Amino acid sequence: MAQHDIGLIGLAVMGQNLVLNMANNGYSVGVYNRTQATTDDFVGGLKDRPEDVVHEGTADRVVGYDSVEGLLKDLKSPRRVMIMVKAGGPVDAVIDQLKPLLDPGDIIIDGGNSDYADTNRRYKELKEAGLRFLGTGVSGGEEGALKGPSIMPGGDPEAWPFVKDILQKISAKVGENNDIPCCDWVGEAGAGHYVKMVHNGIEYGDMQLICEAYYILKHALGLSNDELYHVFKDWNESELESYLIEITRDIFTVKDPETGNDLVDQVLDTAKQKGTGKWMSQHALDLGVPTTLITEAVYARCLSAQKDARVRASKVLSGPDGQYQGDKKQFIEDVRQALYASKLVSYAQGYVQLDAAAEEFGWELNNGSIALLWRGGCIIRSRFLQDIKAAFDKEPNLENLLLDDFFKKAIDEAQPSWRRVVAAAVELGLPVPGFAAALSYYDGYRRDRLPANLLQSQRDYFGAHTYERIDKPRGETFHTDWIRERNLS
Ligand code: 6PG
């Protein structure tokens, strides 16, 4: 007998917490996991979980199944099945299992961190099979999944009305009355997962910039972890107020029970990555848009991962390793401003990539609404996203966030500090790939003439690749025999 509002397949922590979130919000959920013991442990253990995790009545609304067939039999029509399994092959495997068992019009929702290109493909294949597919980005980690994530649904627009209520109900809320859901329709095919990928790329950028600020304050000023805690606490009460600044603040207070040292100092300096930041950079290159800061953030993780090589090189290579000699208080403020300005560039680049992708795939993305999706629940949530939303509300077709009055003024104010920090870091031998890439992008973007005239001359010189002229219409090309024309003295 059909009874459940939705089915969920894949009971790792994110899956489990989404189920609880749905059931806490009054929905009836059927669940299935490939390893039966996981389902049994999860469902059987619900009664022992605290009340703020499993609300009254929730345990009765979650039912475990030992087969996909059994689960599907008990779902209301059109059936809504959410998949929370590892991105890649496992998603295809579950879809292959579901496909012959579903009826036309049934809905599959992939809530994992899938590659948007896979989502484009799956959307097309499932549409041909009469099924409605949604590739849905979910951000906010374990806690977000339980208490309200940011949700970025894309795929088949016909499926949206059937899942809108559930997804909006379980999502994070923002606004004065806490009633604006951080979940709204993003666009067709892989648009939802694309927006989630850009979210993650921006997350890489934000994290890298925070790490650079930390590194400068630690090495150039010699700040202790306790002092760093206070700096980040102050910053979290400024324009930088955000989830990532907040958790960074808190990290400096955690002790290692084994050694008694601050835990952050015991953590090995090699970053891992699952790939979403890299995907964004790869597609930026395909689109030909300069998403430099996020790409530098990916490279910074790669360099950090070469720990053994760096340890060997550190014994051979030399360079400055000095302390900052100027006004300490002013320098801390300079670093804050540099972080803010660089972050702005990162978001500006992210939105330029979104615009280019929308054009490439024929998606109608609403940049202001995307800012609102990221305003709460997700890893990059921040006060700053409200300003981005306001900028796109003012001018929906804004070519680049840097051109918005509010942000132009912010960059103008931050600029002297930003330049001082990058200059000081270079002088002191401290790597700041994010800060420097952001500043170089800014300086490149604001110049009407770049040295590419020389580059085109070089290309034409050695390869007859032709060039355009400043005094002739665009598109008309010219070639010069540079060897014959050269005039060497
Ligand atoms: C989120 C996070 C989440 C996850 C990343 C980590 O939005 O909730 O972005 O998706 O933490 O996948 O990515 P890396 O392993 O690449 O750092």
Q: What brief labels describe this structure?
A:
22 helices; binds 6-phosphogluconic acid; 10 strands; eight-stranded mixed sheet; single chain; two-stranded antiparallel ribbon; 489 residues; alpha/beta; globular
What does this structure look like?
There is one protein chain. The chain is of the alpha/beta class and 489 residues long. It contains 22 helices and ten strands. It has helices at residues 13-24, 36-45, 58-61, 68-73, 89-98, 116-128, 141-147, 160-170, 191-219, 225-235, 243-251, 263-266, 276-287, 292-305, 307-314, 328-361, 367-373, 384-394, 405-428, 433-445, 452-463, 482-485; strands at 6-9, 29-32, 62-65, 80-83, 107-110, 132-139, 150-155, 173-174, 180-181, 187-188. An eight-stranded mixed beta sheet has the order 3-2-1-4-5-6-7-10, sandwiched between helices. Strands 8-9 form a two-stranded antiparallel ribbon. Strand 5 (107-110), helix 6 (116-128) and strand 6 form a beta-alpha-beta unit. Helix 9 (191-219) packs across helix 13 (276-287) and helix 17 (367-373) packs antiparallel against helix 18. 45% of the residues are buried. The model has no long low-confidence stretch (mean pLDDT 97). 6-phosphogluconic acid binds at residues 113, 139-141, 200, 203, 272-274, 276-277, 378-379. 6-phosphogluconic acid binds next to helix 9 and helix 13.
